[in-house]
Amino acid sequence: MEMGKGKSLLLWAGMVALSFSSLYAQSPQQLIQQVAEVERNADRNDHSNWIYLEESNKPKEHVLQWVAGTQRGSVDRILEKDELQLSEARQREIIDKFLHDTKAQNKEVAEANHDNQQIDDLLKLLPEAFIWTQTGATPTTTSLHFEPAPNFHPPTREARVFSSMTGDLVVDNQQHRICKIKGHLIHDVTFGGGLLGRLKERSSFALEQQQVGPSLWELTAIHVHLEGNALLFKSVSLQEDDKRSRYQPEPADTTLEQASSSIMSQPELFACSSSVNSGPASETQVACVEKAAKETRPKP
């Protein structure tokens, strides 16, 4: 029995080693091609809805809120805005206004569709717009570096900005999903000779995503620091740090009304005073947020 068990362990170890060797046998260009296809397929086939906690920092705005996603837009329960804690009555008032504003709902869905299409377009560019090199590997991840491909001709303004960046990307070896990606412009990018827009050198972005369910990944951090006057995405400002956590699944057919009920059942949380000025809350700070919520009552 023990000998048979030992052989089984050796066989299992050999299969794992073989899987890693086949992964590492891929060229960086082949790996990023596979990753881009997996990400695009996942985005197309993912119809999941989630409730999550979001803390967003912009130059003149700080918001802490619960967000409940549906196929007809997202319901936002604003807990705190610019250090002002909103009462439950005010939170419900804002939600009710959105539920009765069809124009606002349609606008949100249109912007989300626009952004999703741009993300898909940019994912398609990853293998051809950049030269990729491997910079590191662990049993669970592979790290890649990218530089602009000299012979690439960007088809759109967004592609022109994206293909003018250099940066790094971390891939999950098992599911071939992007764990992290960050990049910055290596030179100014102008539109219409600078009259229609300009993004300055060193403008940067960083994204992180994590697995939140079986084969389901969601964004957990967004950092956008673009100096200039041209927007890549309608829903992202030129300067924004966004942290998302506490993902909870909701039924795929959840309505806006059901989402509003679910989101109001989430706990009252408020940001620690230090998180307002130090960027997105860390996991340690989130615990501090919970403690602060128990000691502080929202103002009427």
Descriptive keywords:
single chain
Give the spatial strand order of the biggest sheet.
4-3-2-1-13-12-11-8-7-6-5
Q: Tell me what portion of residues adopts beta-strand conformation.
A: 25-35%
Pattern of helices and strands = HHEEEEHHEEHEEEEEEEHHH
Q: What would the principal axes of the Cα set say about the shape?
A: globular
Number of helices: 8
Main β sheet profile: 11 strands, antiparallel
Helix content: 25-40%
**Topology, number of strands:** 13
Q: What structural class results from the helix and strand content? A: alpha+beta
User: How widely separated are the two ends?
Assistant: 70 Å
Low-confidence stretches: 5-23, 274-288, 290-300
User: How many domains make up the 3D coordinates?
Assistant: 1
Please state the CA-atom Rg, rounded to the nearest Å: 22 Å
Task: Sum this structure up briefly.
This protein is an alpha+beta fold and 300 residues long. It is 39% helix and 34% strand.
Structure description:
The protein is α+β, with helices and mostly antiparallel strands and about 300 residues long. It has 8 helices and 13 strands. Helix content is about 40%, strand content about 35%. Strands 4-3-2-1-13-12-11-8-7-6-5 form an 11-stranded antiparallel sheet. A two-stranded antiparallel sheet has the order 9-10. Helix 2 (about 30-45) packs antiparallel against helix 4 (about 100-130). Residues about 5-25, about 275-290 and about 290-300 have low confidence and may be disordered.
